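User: What would this chain look like folded?
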Amino acid sequence: GDGFFVVGDRAGNVFYTRAGNFALDSRGNLVTQEGLNVLGRNGAPISVANVSFVEIDEGGSVIADGNVVGRIGVVTFQNPTYLRNVGKSLLQASAESGGAQPVGAARLVPRALERSNVNVVYEMVRLIEGQRAYEAAARSLSIQDEQTGSLITTFGRS
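Assistant: Here's the prediction, encoded as structure tokens.
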């Protein structure tokens, strides 16, 4: 949906991301690939130290050794297009985006990552086709202009 995960750095800065490829750091904190803490609905980092098995269910609950230890914070914005890009996959709220509003019943897809829905090879082929069609049209206009110039030179102006 329209939700963003809430993450934070050690200085207390809060960011938002759609990248859900989380991992555990050496201290047992749930972190992003950049090492930022994944924040729970209560705004605190989610920690699962000294456990053997961790999973995240469809509701965003973090389950460690069968016990729920936290729930991943998911928020939405009134105008998400105005979020400021501050990193590879990090965003920050702005005055235009509005404040973060918690999503009541977030539905996550465990063991799945959101990817681009674009086939790069196909789009590159279409781009090259478009470029060649433009070049052909430009060349035909150039030839027509040359022919008009030749007619004017040959028959003169009336």
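The mean pLDDT is 88. If you want, I can go into more detail on any region.
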